[in-house]
Amino acid sequence: MTKFLQIQLLGDFRLTYGDELLTSLNAERPQSLLAYLLLHRRAPQPRQHIAFLLWPDSSESQARSNLRNLLHGLRQSLPDADTFLLADTLTLQWNPDAPFALDVAAFDAALAQAVNVTDPAVIRRHLETAVDCYGGDLLPGNYDDWILALREELRRRQVDALYQLVGLLEQAGEYRTAQRYVQRLLLQDPLDEAAYVLQMRLCALSGDRTGIRRAYHSCVDVLGRELDVEPSPATQAAYDEYLRLPPPASTITVALTPLPSDTILSDSDTASMRATGHTPLAVTRARALPAPRTNFLGRKRELAELALHLAEPHCRLLTVIGPGGVGKTRLALETAKGHQPVFADGVAFVPLAPLESVDQIVTAIADALHISCQGAESPLDQLLDFLHDKEMLLLLDNFEHLL
User: Fold this and answer.
1) SS3 at position 197
2) CATH code of the region 5-101
3) What is the DSSP letter of 149?
4) Which pTM value belongs to this model?
5) End-to-end Cα spacing for the chain
6) Which residue ranges make up each domain of the chain?
7) Are strands 20-22 and 14-17 parallel, antiparallel or unpaired?
8) Measured between alpha carbons, how far is 230 from 235 in angstroms, rounded to an integer?
9) Which of 56, 137, 199, 210 could lock 215 by a disulfide, CB 3.0 to 4.6 Å apart?
10) CA 92 to CA 46: how far, in whole Å?
């Protein structure tokens, strides 16, 4: 009788057949083949395509020969292989109906369940399940081209889930539990300034001034050691603000607002906080911003100046002007990234370059916010209704040709 197969691809590769830990598949090539079939198990995969992925520098005949030998070895090492592997002369497939459990599948399922509910407590349970399924990067010792993008995608989704979970815990006033998940963010990416800002804020809400200082100086040490840079001006402003906050009352009541089902979580961001007396308690990750292809260097004075303007309570519109090609968009994007932890309802990038008239701006903003304008009410009124109670930064890029 076929036993149940437990498969771990996140972190250390591990196969457990029944109660037996399988140790005969420790080489990189069989692990790569097994992982590819598992992660594409919904459909048969052409042998020719698999051979090219695993041996891109070999001739077609050599790659196919390598695949045959590798498949033979996999069959020898995997108990009851015919139950798990479906093969013919042209294709290979992992049997999706075989008795097995895959950590990546459990991670995906938990995240999908979190999206399909609105109760914060239920969302939290699913997110906790998801982040616990993530034992580490996908096959971290494997550098095949096909796996790199998938590894980064899973890592991004784990980071996004952690940020969303921290936000829910903060809303519920469970600051110490939230801090444990922030520590997981920092273990995954010690250079993530946004995580240090969250850590400082959670310490401030807990009345832990020593923790605020410890978090900030950890940020200073890591950035200085790894990148030879200082924290961003906005992060420094956050540190100063949190130290100025009065100790919290013994009881803090926070109104819970479920995250919108269409919220899109972004990549890891640089951190910031406005230097004002207002500290938003709700944390949501911003909608995705364009990912620059190069590192941002210099412009500290301009970043600090923009941060100060955005910190003004009465600042509703801030315009960056200058000749074409001097880097206005890049500066604005870096500022927006730095303020993602600040605005409770996120930051959104609205590209206006493709537009031909001012009349299209409302639709462009609605599209960026994933709002579907329907019904008799005008799109402008619907957009204003959506935005009127939001704390959000909108980055409108390339407006000048519409004037």
Assistant:
1) helix
2) 1.10.10.10
3) H
4) 0.64
5) 74
6) 5-101, 310-403
7) antiparallel
8) 10
9) 199
10) 6
